[in-house]
Amino acid sequence: MPPLSRLAPALLLLAPAPARADEPVDFARDVRPLLSNSCFKCHGPASQMGKVRLDTREAAVKSGAIVPGSPDKSTLVERVCEPSDDDRMPPPEAGPRLTAQQVKTLKQWIAEGAEYTPHWAFQRVVRPQPPTTKTATRYAIDRFVLARLEKAGLTMSAEADRSTLLRRVTLDLTGLLPTPVEVLAFLDDRSPDAYEKAVDRLLASPHYGERHARHWLDLARYADSNGYTIDGARSIWPYRDWVVRALNADLPFDQFTTHQLAGDLLPGATADQKIATGFHRNTSFNEEGGTDPEQFRVERTVDRANTTGAVWLGLTVGCAQCHTHKYDPVTQHDYYRLYAFFDSCDEPTMPIGGTAKMEEAISRLNQMEAWIQKNGGSREDIDLVKAEIKRVQGKVTTTLVMRERPAARTTHVQIRGDFLRKGDVVQPGFPAALGATPAGKRQTRLDLAKWLVSRDNPLTARVTVNREWQKFFGRGLVETENDFGMQGALPTHPELLDWLAVQFMEPLGWSMKKLHRQIVLSATYRQASVVRPDLTQRDPRNLLLGRQSRLRLEAEVIRDAALSASGKLNTKVGGPGVYPPQPKEVFAFTQSQRTWPESKGPDRYRRGVYTYIWRQSQHPLLTTFDGADAQTACTKRNRSNTPLQALHLANDPVFVELATELGRRVDTDGGADDAAKVRFAYRACFGRDPTTQEAARVLAYLEAQRRTDAVGAWPATARVLMNLDEFITRE
């Protein structure tokens, strides 16, 4: 559960002043967070100590804890005001006393009738009307943002300069730097729709799918190995390629969901739809000797239930594995109903890609073997044909998929989460607080997928657009992107969140590209990221979106940027994982001895999304720059700032090599004189021209290098540029 300290800043902004006596208390804003943080652990869905339950009005009134209209008769008020630590609530070991203001709010709420309102995230999504603002704006997104800013007496920042804007949107949509040619073309295009044309070009790029596939693969806990101590290799890269293709083709998110959760159950399921079910084959798999296969099958099924809850519902459903959730309306029976959807799955391997040709070749070899035997061929001839058959079979590409068992397993509630202690039998079903499970036929994964993306589910669209917003601003409208439950943060812009959710489902038809287009065309997105004194004082965390956010690039994008700037990037899309250089010592402490067959030639320079991922010994670039750990669904990567990162960029042989290549490229292609070459280098690295002062400093450094090493002067200069903070930052 997120600590209160993580939520407090958002709550302070959302409720800048306590409710006045003449202003009704808002239960969702003022009271529910107070009860959730201080009371629900012992008096909520999972535990009702002293037979007191406070998460529902009926139970709270029945116990006498709350007497609507009479705070002085309510035992809740009596206990929170109790001076003795022995009797006060919450007790000292459970948390601090309520403040005087919190007690005042609680009393006012009870005096006003103690009305409970449903948790905002569990209410049906309704399209709000964009508000009227003092400043005219073209896009609805901006009206919601401006309304909040104007209410706080603030304004939006000016639009970023054109060079910054192109670099920002190119990185955000494709994960690559704009080329010097693209920078010049954009700066020379003075038409009113120049930016829109650039956005449409980037959305149509095959690199769009690679960029956003990496985000999705974090959620899918994608890796090319099985995990645990043996961490054996697996073939699942076709699933990764399916994600890239689906995003490039703008497969609507409702279908994107259905194919991954239940593609094998679709009528006449295609090979692609079956490959998509690899989403839930990304679980770890224990190959150690002496293990209980059933125990680890159950663990994989638990992981599937938890991941589904995190990715589509934004809830910590895993908290209900051993007992009813302490804060959210997810019972233990709800949990195992969700678990039951995945309990009857088999885990087959499926051959793909060129299978028909392989089968034909094997058939011909089998015929040849029969002919040799019939016509008196030697044993050696027969062995040669058999060896060839085995070789051809080994060339068949396979991937991991899901398949329903012919007969369903009986699913039990597992008492205290122990698979050996079986409780009540449950059928597949949805969490009761979010919707009724249809009576009649047994529900399947396909029914689950359809419910997740139905208009009746209040969470999926909200959770998804929030995560997409996070990509472009560094923080979601709901800061706790993995927890839309009672302990999660309130949305900073609730109307905007719901407007985006409805927009995503209906007019946009679940189109991710159309959603991204609306976001990046907005004035909110196009703002400069420069920190303003008034914002620093009144909105230091930029929750009101009065400027853009300055973000360090992710691990894979940093290397991709270096490849792009140096001109070495191999833009091939798809295929098996590759092995860019890494230190030999990475595998020194793994249980199973393995090698890293370092890629040669063009494969050495493939994008980071194609790097082979060993779960237990990831590439150092990923560990240094906060890559996803591939053990569980990663809804947001950290963005740390450590000395190791600076040392990695300055000394890692790969980055030294790419800086050298950039220097050679600048010297060869940059222009006739050093001034032109400096401009070329800046466009390649930063998407802009240098200032007069910057150019003078670079030229002075270049000249100093020439005095000691004429050949290495440009590579040394390029190395400096690639180690500037701006190079690994999206402004």
Overview of this protein structure:
- With 731 residues, the chain is mainly α.
- Among the domains are: 4-117; 291-349 and 401-456, no CATH class; 354-395; 651-730.
- Helices cover 47% and strands 3% of the residues.
- The protein contains 31 helices and eight strands.
- The strands form four sheets. A two-stranded antiparallel ribbon has the order 1-4. It has a two-stranded antiparallel sheet with strand order 2-3. A two-stranded antiparallel sheet has the order 5-6.
- The longest helix has 21 residues, at 293-313.
- It starts with a helix and ends with a strand.
- It holds the Pfam family PSD1.
- GO terms for molecular function: electron transfer activity; heme binding.
- This is Planctomycete cytochrome C.
- InterPro entries: Cyt_c-like_dom_sf, Cyt_c_Planctomycete-type, DUF1549, DUF1553.
Spatial separation of the terminal alpha carbons: 32 Å
Beta-strand percentage range: under 5%
- Whole-number mean pLDDT: 92
Question: Can you count the helices?
Answer: 31
**Which quaternary structure do these chains form?**
single chain
Give the helix level as a range of percent: 40-55%
What is the number of E strands? 8
Largest sheet: 2 strands, antiparallel
Unreliable stretches covering 5 or more consecutive residues: 1-17
Keywords: Signal
Protein name: Planctomycete cytochrome C
Pfam families: PSCyt1, PSCyt2, PSD1
GO molecular function, one term: heme binding
Write the layout of secondary structure elements.
Layout: H1 4-14, H2 27-38, H3 40-43, H4 57-62, H5 75-80, H6 100-111, H7 140-151, H8 162-174, H9 180-188, H10 194-203, H11 206-219, H12 237-248, H13 253-262, H14 271-276, H15 293-313, H16 332-343, E1 345-346, E2 349-352, H17 355-374, H18 379-394, E3 397-400, E4 403-404, E5 411-414, E6 422-426, H19 445-452, H20 460-473, H21 494-505, H22 512-521, H23 523-526, H24 533-538, E7 551-552, H25 555-566, H26 620-624, H27 643-651, H28 653-669, H29 674-686, H30 692-708, H31 713-722, E8 729-730
Antiparallel strand pairs: 1-4, 2-3, 5-6, 7-8
